Input
Amino acid sequence: MISRVGLRASRPAHALFVLPFVAVYALLLLWPLAKGLLIGLHDHDLLSNDSFWVGLDNYRQLLDDEVFMQVVWNTVRFVAISTPIFVLLSLALALALNRPGRLGLVLRATFFCASVFSVTLITLVWKLALMPERGLIAQLLTTLGLPEVPLLTSDSLALLTVALVTVWWIIGLPMILFLSALQQIPSDIYEAAALDNTSRWRTLTRITLPSLKRTIVLVALIEMIRQFQVFPQIMLMTNGGPNNTTRPIVQFIYEQAFMQLSLGYAAAASQVLLAIMLIGVSAQLWLERDRKVAR
Amino acid sequence: MAGLKLEAVSKRYGAVQVIDRLSLDVVEGEFLVFLGPSGCGKTSLLRMIAGLEEVSDGRILIGDKDVTNAAPGQRNLAMVFQHYALYPHMTVRDNLAFGLKNIGIAADEIARRIQESSRMLELDKLLDRKPGQLSGGQRQRVAIGRAVVKEPGIFLFDEPLSNLDAALRGRTRLELAQLHRRLGATMVFVTHDQIEAMTLANRIVVMNGGVIEQVASPAEVYRRPTTRFVAGFIGTPGMGFVPVTRLPDEDGRAVVRLPGGAALCTQVSAALQGQDLSLGLRPENLRASADGALRGQVEMVEFLGERSLAHLKLADGTALSITVIGQAPQIGESIGVAIDLAEAHLFDGQGRAHHAQEWLP
Output
């Protein structure tokens, strides 16, 4: 009888058990989200704290703002460049380093090491390396008798350069994800494959990669979400330049909110970023589902 | 179909010698079972035959071809793994076809083999499922099917029944025996389960500590174990050992003094050496009898259906089990035990067996 009462009867007091979670979730996630949406519909001046309703004016203004269009394009390009590199390179590293022995251990630790450093340290090191004339790369090119390449100051190369530095910086985490997935593949499957006369290439494409499918999707999603929010390394390396070619959406939002002090406009831009990220992630999941159905 | 020859094969992991100069001939079409306790080297040996483990010393020949250093896929054999090792993202059909596609077998031939083997193993309805959607027994059948479609010279089985429940294990055991009869293929089977070994094998290789203790038919391993280890390992419970001392021989037979003080004239030839011996007795060769040569106190009785096992303690503390048919004795009761001399063996100090002989006068 006790269990019947306890398990089946639903009482309002039972809601107390989920209240802590709901409260924190509402306070730290739902409330700011709603508040952000609301601010985006106002002209909110941070200095005077004046706020009045403007409806969708902020969004209309964003559509006409050439700088905003540029930063959206920059961010999408940044994600499009960095995410595939993240997936392919970290997968390749994991496959190469998934071996017992000291060398593998040292290399795994080395690649993961960079992710631990702070963004200021990483950008400082790379700015020194990329410095015109006296930087490591400039000197290397001079030694080889090659012309100097303006990596951070060229409109066409700056975004690519920052993307590569970002990859260098945080390739360790996706690599570790792939390594842990690789180590979960039972070794007897590889032994069965060896007895089945499977070539190395077919073992990779027919055994290993299919087993890593979930992790590949996971890494692509994580990196997509992270790289849409790219900001500090660009701020520190190029400050959005040259000619706004590296300025990302988050930097635009930051500048609008805390330098132009127009919070409403910045909030509207944040909603656009959220929408783009949701579209990106949904597209990725939809592609994956489509492929599963096709199989 | 092919034979298998191991010539002085050794396996070392660093300084640890797992298998020591082991030689063995497996004839074509034979069902050979490696039987032994955990860590006796039987799985290492199977993996060396498969090419999954390097051979430290010696040679392995399949057919007449030296395959000691050949890749696993080049040895014309198929293996069924303990944990099935099916490819999880492929359907049953693809699992069966994968190895055949790798060696470029024509599609219609692959289809024919899959059809044939899936009918034989009742996999027809499962062909489009993935391993995750199958039960343990079905997965095991797919693993066997994957070996069958390859039509290999030798089948290797690495404890393939150990993950199945008791009922399924019994059924699969029978199916394996039928499969062997139907295919007539050479099969090498590793197990620590003596019932599997007894029921399946043409010959059993009993291993202990990386060396072969005995190679013989199941009946011979049971009735004429060559060493004390084999005698104690085979049988449930294993053979019991009673310490005895030698008395002067009689008519060419060894005579020993039993723990109770009685003299026993065995049917073992007096040619054996040594004074301190062990008398090996299986429970079914002992029976309760008031004037029996041995006496012991009943410590426990196990009811097994058609018979019971009574576990006795002899006067000197030796434990011995006897089979009782009919009314079982009470716990604590002291009973006499009569010995069937034709099945009473003597073991010398080195653990070598000396068997009772019927021709002795």
About this structure: The longest strand of chain A covers residues 42-44. Strands of chain A lie at 42-44, 51-53.
